[in-house]
Design brief:
heterodimer; A: 366 residues; Rossmann fold; 2 domains; 6-stranded mixed β-sheet; 5-stranded antiparallel β-sheet; 20 strands; 36% strand; globular; B: 231 residues; mainly alpha; MetI-like fold; 76% helix
């Protein structure tokens, strides 16, 4: 049942009849961690937004049981109305109130809270979102990225028990996305509000999420830690070229001459480009399956500098007539390699076999 | 040239009537328009049609039934008599009531359009920020619908100034009480005083033109269609 009181528990059954005539139903039963970022990932029409709307109480005819860290928001007997749930909601479009200044937009929620926000916390949020210079402006004077930062600050100021974000970057161009992501990361690092983050971008998932829920046509097809879900090759998630894992590693050495950092994780080490991270800091590294190849002997005469000794954990041949996915265990981490069936046959890849994984390229996410 | 004392009385009466009616109409029209803009009820169609009736009915029809209702044997007349107020027919109050019905669509429609243009999203945002239903109406819907209120007030005022048929049916022609400008012009024409009729009629034309100019100017500025019908 309720594991302590620190989780977010939800069961939702919601039948939507509209949507251009076809009916759609959302049926989920989830227990989500009460801290960190939970990404809800899925194609458009998979029910991601509906899930958030149910959590916020905006879908009045949904049948749901929702409890957030022990307080019941919705059950068969009661349904707390939206304005009495302490929920922050950042919509896809910033939806600022056009008739209010930035500052008044941000304080709108605080003025209605039982206890208004303390000025320290307020300053912290303004600094976190970089809004000091914008407080007197009106929404139509702001860029898309600035507006979205105001919308996030506005949702944070009510000190929500749960922050819902519905594709907050989807309406922005690549440059604006890059501008906002650092704000989201620092928010993640310095606030302990649990965040449910809806997105259809694998990049955002890899960069931000701690926990991952995958929705398909209104049903949950995976829910678990980011590493577990991304490395599970049995899941029918079609990420295509984006298939790959995320590894948290610690920076242990700086090679100033070649501009590289040596990072360690439980199963080995990886050299990455020196992005200026301090020794001892933790960074998140993405390893795509298409960049991993397997050899039986460590080639020291190769251009590839990253090699990890691994054991084959699973092989998945379902998706492609010529290629297959191999999941590999290195320490307590998993890596996925994509190789041709012929190569796998020639190398004699079987479950339990020990091989070197050569990693052609890695991306530092943060 | 110059307005006679009777003309001035008629102009002042007209302005007083239009101001009173406009204020009352905004108070009555706002909740009706809000309901029409937000509801999924099956009653939405019939109620909209009922409110729009004065747009198509001859004012004499409306005036006739109001006269019956307000008169000594009508339902409203009986109530007002039992309250010791006498009957409202052929009185200023009766005229206010008649004008409210007559001008209602001109206030409700722009307000309804303005409320519909806001959409659900700002109200949902306000709800997630802790605003209850009434709070959302006053802190979000009203300020965002401001251009609609301006249009509604101007149209309601102007339309009340311009009414004639309803006034004649339920107000009659009592100087200082029910004799408004449009009736005064009619009187002048009946008396073959064309010069005086012309002065007042010109005043009406200039006034009406300025009113419409202000509405269309605002419409252009807010990039929003506020007027839907016959203007």
């Amino acid at each position: 049942m309720n594991m302590g009181n620190s989780t977010i528990d939800l069961q939702i059954n919601h039948q939507l009849s509209e949507r251009g005539g076809r009916s759609f139903s959302l049926n989920v039963d989830l227990q989500l961690p009460g801290q960190g970022i939970t990404a809800v990932f899925g194609a458009s029409g998979s029910g991601k937004t509906t899930l958030l709307r149910c959590l916020a109480g905006l879908e009045s005819d949904a049948t749901a049981q929702i409890s957030v860290k022990g307080s019941a928001w919705q059950s068969d007997q009661v349904s707390v109305p939206t304005h009495k749930r302490r929920v922050g909601y950042v919509f896809q479009e910033s939806s600022l109130f056009p008739h209010l200044s930035v500052e008044k937009n941000i304080l709108y929620g605080s003025q209605r809270a039982p206890t208004p926000i303390e000025s320290n916390n307020y300053q912290h949020i303004i600094d976190l979102m970089g809004l000091k210079q914008l407080l007197d402006q009106y929404p139509d004077q702001l860029s898309g990225g600035e507006r979205q930062r105001v919308a996030i600050a506005r949702a944070l100021v009510i000190d929500p028990e749960l922050l819902l974000m519905d594709e907050p970057l989807a309406s922005l161009d690549v440059k604006r996305k890059q501008e906002i992501l650092p704000y989201l990361e620092s928010m993640h690092a310095s606030l302990d509000v649990p965040i449910i983050y809806v997105t259809h971008s694998v990049d955002e998932v890899a960069r931000l999420a701690d926990h991952l829920v995958v929705l398909e046509e209104g049903a949950v097809i995976a829910s678990g830690s980011l590493a577990d879900v991304l490395s599970n090759i049995e899941l029918p998630i079609q990420l295509g070229e984006d298939t790959g894992v995320v590894i948290e590693a610690t920076v242990v050495e700086r090679d100033a001459e070649w501009h590289l950092l040596r990072t360690e994780f439980d199963g080995g080490e990886l050299w990455v480009r020196d992005g200026g991270d301090a020794l001892g800091s933790n960074i998140r590294i993405r390893v795509l399956a298409r960049d991993v190849s397997l050899t039986l002997n460590p080639h020291t005469d190769s251009s590839i500098i990253n090699r990890v000794w691994t054991r084959v954990d699973n092989i998945q041949e379902r998706n492609d007539p010529s290629m297959l996915l191999v999941s590999l265990i290195a320490g307590d981490k998993k890596i996925i390699a994509r190789l041709s069936r012929r190569s796998a046959h020639q190398l004699g890849i079987t479950i339990g076999k020990e091989v070197w994984a050569q990693i052609k390229g890695v991306a530092i996410l943060r | 040239m110059g307005f006679s004392e009777a003309d001035v009385t008629a102009i002042l009466l007209t302005l007083r009537l239009a101001t009173t009616v406009t204020l009352l109409l905004l108070l009555i029209g706002a909740p009706i328009a809000w309901w029409l803009a937000r509801t999924d009820s099956r009653l939405k169609g019939p109620i909209s049609a009922l409110i729009a009736l004065p747009l198509v009915l001859p004012p004499t029809v409306l005036g006739f039934y109001l006269l019956l209702a307000l008169g000594p044997n009508g339902p409203i007349g009986q109530i007002t008599q039992s309250l010791g107020l006498g009957t409202l027919a052929f009185s200023y109050s009766g005229l206010v009531i008649g004008s409210i019905f007559y001008s209602l669509p001109f206030v409700v429609q722009p307000l309804q359009n303005a409320f519909e243009a806001i959409g659900d999203r700002p109200l949902e945002v306000a709800a997630t920020l802790g605003a209850g239903p009434l709070d959302r109406f006053f802190s979000v819907a009203l300020p965002m619908a401001r251009p609609g209120f301006f249009t509604a007030a101007v149209l309601g005022f102007a339309h009340t100034v311009g009414e004639f048929g309803v006034v004649l049916m339920i107000g009659g022609n009592i100087p200082g009480e029910t004799r408004v400008v449009s009736v005064q012009i009619y009187d002048h024409v009946e008396a073959l005083a064309y010069d005086q009729a012309n002065q007042l009629a010109l005043l009406m034309i200039v006034f009406s033109f300025l009113v419409l100019l202000s509405v269309y100017g605002l419409q252009k500025k807010s990039h929003r269609q506020i007027l839907r019908f016959g203007l």
